């Protein structure tokens, strides 16, 4: 059976290869979930503060029909 080394709490441990792959998979899953949350928060903040600052987000049809057309 193949062995692999993982780092847990600053300590290297020798474990089976399937255990090491599962450990790395869980770490990647947490990293992916965190990145997704950060991206969603940034997009939300951009849209939210964009709507507050410029009079709101308008579709092209709303802009075309607005009375403030120049």
Order of helices and strands: EEHH
- Helix percent reads 55-70%
Query: Any idea how many domains?
Result: 1
Using only CA atoms, what is the Rg? 24 Å
From the N-terminal CA to the C-terminal CA, the straight-line distance is: 75 Å
- Regions with pLDDT < 50 over 5+ consecutive residues? none
Biggest pleated-sheet summary:
2 strands, antiparallel
Mean residue pLDDT: 85
| Major sheet strand order | 1-2
Name the shape in a single word.
Answer: rod-shaped
Number of extended strands: 2
Structural class of the secondary structure composition?
A: alpha+beta
Strand content: 15-25%
Number of helices: 2
In short:
The chain is an alpha+beta fold.
Please tell me about this protein's structure.
It is a single chain. The protein is 61% helix and 17% strand. The model has no long low-confidence stretch (mean pLDDT 85). Strands 1-2 form a two-stranded antiparallel sheet. The chain is α+β, with helices and mostly antiparallel strands and 70 residues long. Strand 1 and strand 2 (11-16) form a beta hairpin.
């Amino acid at each position: 059976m193949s062995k692999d080394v993982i780092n847990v709490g600053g300590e290297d441990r020798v474990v089976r290869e399937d255990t090491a792959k599962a450990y790395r998979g869980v770490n990647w899953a947490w990293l992916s979930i965190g990145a997704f949350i950060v991206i969603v928060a940034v997009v939300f903040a951009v849209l939210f503060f964009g709507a507050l600052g410029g009079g709101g987000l308008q579709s092209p049809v709303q802009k075309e029909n607005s009375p403030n057309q120049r």
